[in-house]
Amino acid sequence: MASLNLAEGLTEAGLSFTRLPHPAPTPVAARDAILAAPGFGTAFSDHMVCIEYSEAEGWHGATLGARGPIALDPAAAVLHYAQEIFEGMKAYTHPDGSIALFRPEANAARFNASARRLAMPEMPETLFVEAVKQLVTADRDWLPPVEGGSLYLRPFMIATEAFLGVRPAKAYKFLVIASPAGNYFKSGAPAVSIWVSAYSRAAPGGTGAAKCGGNYAASLMPQAEAIARGHDQVVFLDAAEHRWIEELGGMNLYFVFADGTLTTPPLSGTILPGITRDSLLTLAREEGLTVREERYAIDQWQADAASGKLVETFACGTAAVVTAVGRVCGTGPGASDEFTIGSGGPGQITTRLKARLVAIQRGQAADTHGWVTRVT
Ligand SMILES: *Cc1c(COP(=O)(O)O)cnc(C)c1O
After folding, report:
1. Which CA distances in Å does 217 have to 33, 87, 100, 249, 269?
2. Fewer beta carbons under 10 A from the terminal one: N or C of the chain?
3. Whose CA is nearest to atom 10 of ligand 1?
4. H or E element in which residue 226 lies
5. What ligand 1 atom has the least distance to the C-alpha of 276?
6. What does pLDDT average to over the chain?
7. Measured distance CA(181)–CA(143) in Å, rounded
8. For residue 87, which atom of ligand 1 is closest to its CA?
9. 361 close to ligand 1 (CB < 6 Angstrom)
10. How confident is the model at residue 16, as a pLDDT?
11. Is the C-beta atom of 280 inside 6 A of ligand 1?
12. Which atom of ligand 1 is nearest to the CA of 249?
């Protein structure tokens, strides 16, 4: 088959990307209809990146081609023992028309940390970033021109070896797909309501700090329970004492106090080290706020919300950026206690920090931290 090596495709890892022709890209009218109301995670761009790994060859066979089904042996290890990790990141259109990524090298580093925990091969960070750039460049027409729009990128790795014995697989596939994104929360709600789960997401020594599909599989039933009870999201407490607040199913938490200080749960190994969380640590300190990485108990949260000592709580992550938490339910043994935070809507500091971060991501404010990487 005719293929061409992209001129810029040679990475520091020594891999070149083979461009496979797309037989039938989405017609422009159909694409425009999708981009006018992209939703989240339901529509996909035309292309995908695929890179193979074997023990003998290492990373090889990098392609950029048409997005489509992948062939897997029914005995592929990922289907049985869940050897899978992923990342979530976004490409944004800047005011000058260029397209940029936000801290992609942080995603690459976290991907390798997840790989180590799941006994999967690490990937050169330059190769990870190059793969993402290749896809964004090919699908640059898939960035939604709507307010708050972005191209959500999903790099992931699966164990492909056909083998039912229990040990780390010897063959893997790395892929990157892309999905045009609008607002993460369907309601576009200014503040979400969260349900305190009796289930645990992660235990000490477990995989809570790795971005792996297995963590999400375990969180789906608690999340469904939250929805069934009329809430938007679930919040997990620590597995040992069921007292310390950890995080939501896919977002980290910050607590804002009336004295202008903030806390966020520490990276103790059971929460996911969010890049949004890390960026907000820096931005909040620049704003002159005192931020502590400190454990915070559920009963204290409720007491502080009632006394007015705690004025805001927000969740943060790439998909929804910053989202105010307005209401919390299910704190007592009977799981019926409920409390409101501040006014129940987004508070001042939540709004200010969100605006600062979004402005940097979208190229509307100076990038003084070297967080922004231009793609095209
Ligand atoms: C991805 C993720 C986050 C947020 O991480 P970001 O890098 O900020 O997107 C938080 N918690 C969990 C469980 C996650 O999977």
Report:
1. 32, 16, 31, 10, 19
2. N
3. 251
4. helix 213-228
5. 8
6. 93
7. 8
8. 1
9. no
10. 94
11. no
12. 13
CA gap 83, 101 in Å, rounded? 27
Q: Is the dihedral of CA 359, 360, 362, 363 positive or negative?
A: positive
Has residue 30 got a pLDDT over 90? Answer: yes
Q: How far is the CA of 5 from the centre of ligand 1 (A)?
A: 34
Structure letter (DSSP) for residue 244: B
Please answer whether residues 316 and 254 qualify as being in contact, where contact means their C-beta atoms are separated by less than 8 angstroms: yes
Residue nearest atom 14 in ligand 1 by C-alpha distance: 250
Supply the DSSP symbol for 255. E
Cα(71)–Cα(74) distance, integer angstroms: 9
Question: Which protein residue's CA is at the shortest distance from atom 2 of ligand 1?
Answer: 250
Question: What are the pLDDT digits (tens) for 75-129?
Answer: 999 999 999 999 999 999 999 999 999 999 999 999 999 999 999 999 999 999 9
Domains, the chain, ordered by start: 2-183 (3.30.470.10), 191-361 (3.20.10.10)
For range 240-267, the mean pLDDT: 97
Alpha carbons 98 and 230: distance in angstroms, whole number: 41
Angstrom distance (rounded) from CA 105 to CA 125: 7
Residue 104 has which token pair? 């992609």
Distance CA 363, CA 176 (A): 24
Contacts of 205 by beta carbon, 8 Å cutoff, 6+ apart: 269
For the chain, the 3-state helix, strand and coil shares in percent, each to the nearest 5, are: 25, 30, 45
Distance, CA of 332 to CA of 314 (rounded, Å): 21
* Residue among 327, 236, 323 nearest 277 (CA): 323
HSE (side-chain half, CA atoms, 13 Å) at 34: 21
pTM above 0.85, yes or no: yes
Binding site membership of 250 for ligand 1 (Cβ less than 6 Å):
yes
Secondary structure (3-state) at 145: coil
Nearest atom in ligand 1 to 279's CA: 8
Distance 248 CA to ligand 1 centre (A): 9
Question: How crowded is the C-beta side of 56, counted as CA atoms within 13 Å?
Answer: 1
